[in-house]
Structure formats: C-alpha cells, structure tokens
Amino acid sequence: MTQATEPQQRGIIVTDSAMKHIKSLRSQQGGEDLCLRVGVRGGGCSGMSYTMDFEQIENIQPSDEVFEYEEGFKVVCDPKSLLYIYGMALDYSNALIGGGFQFTNPNATQTCGCGKSFSA
Asked: Which DSSP state fits 11?
C-alpha cells in the first residue's frame, strides 16, 4: 500500500495513488464539484460488495459522514455502510494483473478472490 494522504484518524483512508486516480476520473466526469461516494450493498461472492461513484456535492445528506482531503476533495459515506467499512484503506494499482482499486477493510472477516466483496 502506498502512503496515505490523510492521518489514520479518518474513517476512510485514501492513499496518494488512489487520490491521483480518483481526481483523474473526476476530471473525465466533468467536474471539480463532484465528491466520491463509497459504500456497501448486499451481493458479490462474499455477501457484500463495495460501491464507489461520483456524486454532486449538493446531494450529500445530513446523515452522511463526510471526510475532507487535500484541496477540499470530499469522500462521502452513508452511516449504514460506514459501520462495515470504517477504517478501510482505498488504494490504486496500475498493475496489469490485479490492478485497479483495492480495498483493505479491517472489518472484513472474509474477502473474495477479486477483492471487490467481503463478509463482516
């Protein structure tokens, strides 16, 4: 895992590599006014799968947890999902095999081979 952008006190840790790729994707999506929403949903080979998508900042709900990173970038998570992913580290690798976003979740009791789903 690469160096984290923020101290370990954040509920979701984003590495420098992941932040760089997220900002690149955000530019392609057309906006500095987008935040990244992360969460979980039922499904996947281990019972729950991670979700990530860009969202307009004005769609942030009062109950959402908002983590601010460099240059005002926001990562948002709903309270139910945060119960399952608090303390998770989000990393990114551009390796040909096993590359992409990688989730390191301290709350996962089991993860699948693809790394995109887990059970808690």
From this structure: S
Contacts of 83 (CB under 8 A, 6+ apart): none
**Within 13 Å, how many C-alpha atoms sit on residue 84's CB side?**
23
Give tens-digit pLDDT for 82-108.
998 999 999 999 887 777 898 888 887
For residue 114, how many other CB atoms are within 10 A of its CB? 12
Please give the residue that has the higher pLDDT: either 85 or 44. Answer: 85
Assigned token pair, 44: 């996947």
3-class DSSP state for residue 80?
Answer: helix
Taking the C-alpha atoms of residue 19 and residue 9, their distance in angstroms, rounded to an integer, is: 17
Mean pLDDT calculated for residue range 7-14: 72
CA distance 113 to 120: 16
Are 75 and 67 a contacting pair, CB within 8 Å?
A: yes
pTM of full prediction above 0.70: yes
CA dihedral 2, 93, 55, 9 (to 10 degrees): -20
- Report residue 113: phi and psi, to 5°: -65, -30
